[in-house]
Design goal:
heterodimer; A: 169 residues; alpha/beta; seven-stranded mixed β-sheet; 20% strand; globular; B: 491 residues; Aconitase, domain 3; five-stranded parallel β-sheet; 16 helices
């Protein structure tokens, strides 16, 4: 997991639920490539194909509320989103994102960011640099257990490195 | 090795507590072995370190513990017990042992991730439960293939608790089959797992990768939540159901009002509800972002019914005096009229009277939070002697097989069918728009389920109102949103 993530910002609003991130009718799909075609389709049908050109998703409050479907962060990651910034996250969505190796960081509510702004985020230090607006903002730094999981590239690989040595299988 | 241990404690002040523990551990057989070993020698011959060694079975331990916070919430007691700690407090990152790990049929990824982690055997097949409730029965080849993979996995792993398509929604199925034990930890791949807080368990939802790790290790990391107390005061009108109460609370606390926290429901209006109605409160706590829910009175009741299965020592269903809640809310619901959430968000709640007259295309009563026996009864009573309006569909899904059978015996199903309702198999189908009642563009649905996000039940251009089963059924008869009719019925 690189410490610096750079990308164009895609802005969405408050209380974006998992049905809008990944509509229920596609839950039966199992491959990342198939899921990527429907990421954020519930907000706008043309979004999935455009996600790769953004890279950083910036959301309001309670991002990912609703269902526990892991397809939501999985589809975002598969579609090319490399970092999610939000004022706050719904609990299960946050866990799922970190477990999949997709960093999710809480930002301050008054941070000014506009669609297509060029951002560089230092996820370990908790610093957002807005190159378009020439401004800097402090955000939450990822430390502790979530940082370890991200460093391993997700919970699957993390467990391979640690728990698998401890637990007899 | 037999051990004798005595603990003397000095306690207890209101918020600060000073404990003096003297632990005296006597291990007789170890002492005997040492005596035998040194028995042939005279005392002088034994070197000093051997004397110390001989004395070591008598271990005198004096520990002085000053604990700032002694009061534990019932949920904290459960978490402490499951993480082998004396106590935990809000914010602690702990690893808990999971008593029940549940997987539903949306989550074939659990099996993929489990295998990618290198998993060969689940940690304890007796504690793993599979539910086929979201696609019951499957309506696509892919969904059917996913269930097939899961059936095969259960067979290979020796998991015998596989509740197939006839069983119903996971939360109700667990309850019906007596798997929910107060004081236990329940984790299911479903956000509405908060339901089991109404029966005294710590229960929460997770995604596929978290569940795969649980199947591998039996453990899960969790941050101990702060607890928000919601007191429902007063005595509501007869036509008010748990759904009206929780919609009212949702409208006040809002969809992100309890993110990462646990919600405890108290007060007479909570306690006067039946157990299955209290489960509605706990179920929809997740719509406020809650990690878990809790209702102390039902925990105590469940404790009594479970008897032998419940842990006997410390009463884990009780919150100790002096516990400080993160926030406390109190709502007087005596004057409350039936509530309804407007399309798009669960927390945009108004009185049903405010939107009365809005034409509807479909009404849905069913699922984990609207498919109980009482919900079937309320629906049947509203329909009794009347018929569903022309061009309106009423879709009804009992929460489980047990509910279905009871509703059949009581005549509720017959009454619903007579009135023109459509009964579908127990399960989650219409609530999340995967089958059996999908809405098309521009349609309006009044639903007694838990969510009304855009696109939740099908087309993103459909509109979903959330209300009680009685309001939904009455609206189906009227063809437009309307207040349930007042009916005198046995309480």
């Amino acid at each position: 997991m690189p410490q610096l993530i750079r990308g164009k910002a895609l802005c969405v609003g408050d209380n974006i639920d998992t049905d809008r991130i990944y509509p229920s009718r596609y839950i039966e799909l199992t491959s990342d490539a198939a899921m990527a075609e429907h990421a954020l389709e519930g907000i706008e049908a043309s979004l999935p194909s455009r996600l790769a050109s953004y890279g950083i998703l910036v959301a309001g409050r309670n991002f990912g509320c609703g269902s526990s479907r892991e397809h939501a962060p999985r589809s975002l990651k598969a579609a090319g989103i490399r970092l999610i910034l939000a004022i706050s996250f719904a609990r299960i969505f946050y866990r799922n994102a970190i477990n999949l190796g997709l960093p999710a960081i809480a930002i301050e509510s008054q941070m000014e960011v506009h669609e297509e702004d060029d951002l560089v985020v230092d996820i370990a230090q908790g610093l957002i640099t807005n190159l378009t607006r020439d401004s800097q903002h402090v955000c939450e730094a990822i430390t502790g257990f979530p940082a370890d999981v991200l460093a391993s590239g997700g919970l699957v690989k993390h467990l391979h490195g640690t728990v698998m040595n401890t637990y007899e299988l | 090795m037999r051990a004798f241990s005595a603990t003397f404690g000095l306690s207890s002040f209101q918020t600060f507590r000073l404990n003096l523990f003297i632990e005296f551990i006597w291990k007789p057989d170890r002492l005997r072995r040492l005596t035998l070993y040194y028995g042939k020698n005279s005392r002088q011959d034994i070197p000093w370190h051997a004397c110390l060694k001989a004395l070591s079975p008598y271990r005198l331990e004096i520990s002085l513990l000053i604990q700032e916070k002694i009061s534990l919430h019932a949920l904290e007691s459960i978490l402490a017990r499951h993480s082998d700690r004396k106590s935990v407090s809000a914010g602690d990152l702990i690893t808990i042992n999971v008593d029940i790990a549940g997987v539903n049929d949306l989550y074939v990824q659990v099996i993929d991730e489990f295998k990618r982690m290198g998993g060969k055997k689940v940690w304890d097949p007796r504690k793993v439960v599979f539910f086929f409730d979201h696609y019951s029965p499957p309506s696509t080849i892919q969904a059917s293939a996913n269930q097939q993979t899961m059936r095969k996995f259960c067979f290979e792993q020796g998991i015998d608790k596989l509740y197939d398509i006839h069983s119903g929604v996971c939360h109700r199925v667990l309850f019906d089959h007596g798997h929910v034990c107060p004081g236990s930890t329940i984790v299911i791949t479903d956000s509405h797992t908060t339901t089991h807080g109404a029966f005294g368990a710590f229960s929460t939802g997770v995604g596929a990768t978290d569940m795969a790790a649980i199947l591998l290790t039996g453990k899960m990391w969790v941050k101990v939540p702060e607890v928000v107390r919601v007191a429902l005061e007063g005595s509501p009108l007869r036509m008010i159901s748990a759904k009206d109460l929780i919609l009212h609370v949702l409208g006040k606390i809002r969809a992100d009002g309890a993110v990462y926290k646990a919600i405890e429901f108290t007060g007479p209006a909570t306690y006067n509800l039946s157990l299955e109605q209290r489960a509605v409160l706990a179920n929809m706590s997740v719509e406020m972002g809650a990690k878990a829910a809790f209702i102390e009175k039902s925990a105590a009741e469940a404790w009594e019914t479970h008897g032998a299965h419940a842990p006997q020592d410390p009463p884990y269903h009780r919150t100790s005096e002096g516990y400080t809640y993160a926030e406390s809310f109190s709502f007087n619901v005596s004057e409350l009229s039936p509530q309804i959430a407007l399309p798009g968000s669960v927390d945009n709640v108004v009185d049903v009277a405010d939107v009365a007259g809005v034409p509807i295309d479909q009404a849905y009563v069913g699922g984990c939070t609207g498919g109980s026996v009482e919900d079937m009864a309320a629906t049947a009573r509203q329909l009794s002697g009347r018929t569903v309006a022309p061009r309106v569909r009423l879709v009804v899904s009992p929460a489980s097989r047990a509910v279905y059978l009871q509703a059949l015996r009581e005549g509720y199903i017959e009454s619903i069918v007579q009135s023109g309702g459509t009964i579908i198999n127990p399960g989650c189908g219409p609530c999340l728009g995967v089958h059996q009642g999908i809405l098309s563009s521009g349609e309006v649905c009044i639903s007694a389920a838990s969510r009304n996000f855009p696109g939740r039940m099908g087309s993103p251009e459909a509109q979903i109102y959330l209300a009680s089963p009685a309001t939904a059924a009455a609206s189906a008869v009227a063809g437009e949103i309307t207040l349930p009719r007042e009916i005198s019925c046995p309480s």
